[in-house]
DNA sequence: GCCTTTTATGATCTATAAAGCATATTGACG
DNA sequence: CGTCAATATGCTTTATAGATCATAAAAGGC
């Protein structure tokens, strides 16, 4: 399950899924990442555009990293994540 | 050559490499992505933390996308990008 | 259905990125 | 070395994210 992100909305959804997969609440992740619960809520719901730095803080706390790759064609499996 | 980014600095370096690989100037990329040359310079040199949205604009203009994956152990090849 | 936990959100303040103008500085090339 | 293109940067304004207090709303368990 390779997670593709092309928009801030993708990142929001993806971070929420990753957080839940690890069984963390927004509050727990917030304290781990050194950000505010409010900020995580905003990012996950795409209420506000996030700063790159903040996203990296969250990814680190979730033990994730970003790979930059040439744009791939949409694979069937990816559609599940959208709809 | 899978590009790993864990910090804003990584993103800056990576965007610069990708831009040059496509033979684009900052000005050209700026007009394609709808941002300012100034902004690209700032991001590539990590002069200022970028907004996630801006990074996505640049990635789209470079035909790149982000994959979120579990943190990998550092591979030997990656060290070249650091030192 | 109630209670607890979790998430969303109102309001204000501060910090800072991007817009917008510019020019200075650097780098590549003949 | 001189020239031109490319990149870096000074400054001011505007937009907006994050900090910080709070509480409201929603979700989940019993």
From TrEMBL, chains A, B:
Q: Which SMART domains match?
A: HTH_XRE (SM00530)
Q: Where is the HTH cro/C1-type domain?
A: 15-69
Which SUPFAM superfamilies would you find in this protein's record?
A: lambda repressor-like DNA-binding domains (SSF47413)
Quote the CDD domains the UniProt record gives.
HTH_XRE
One Pfam family this sequence matches: HTH_3
Which InterPro entries does the record associate with it?
Answer: Cro/C1-type_HTH, Lambda_DNA-bd_dom_sf
Q: Which domain of life is it from?
A: Bacteria
Q: What is this protein called?
A: Helix-turn-helix domain-containing protein
Q: Which organism is it from?
A: Sedimentitalea todarodis
């Amino acid at each position: 399950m390779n997670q593709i992100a092309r928009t801030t909305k993708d990142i929001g959804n993806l971070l929420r899924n990753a957080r839940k997969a690890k069984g963390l609440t927004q509050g727990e992740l917030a304290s781990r990442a050194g950000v505010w619960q409010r900020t995580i809520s905003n990012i996950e719901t795409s209420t506000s555009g996030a700063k790159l730095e903040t996203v990296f803080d969250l990814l680190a706390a979730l033990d994730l990293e970003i790979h930059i790759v040439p744009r791939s064609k949409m694979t069937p499996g990816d559609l599940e994540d959208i709809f």
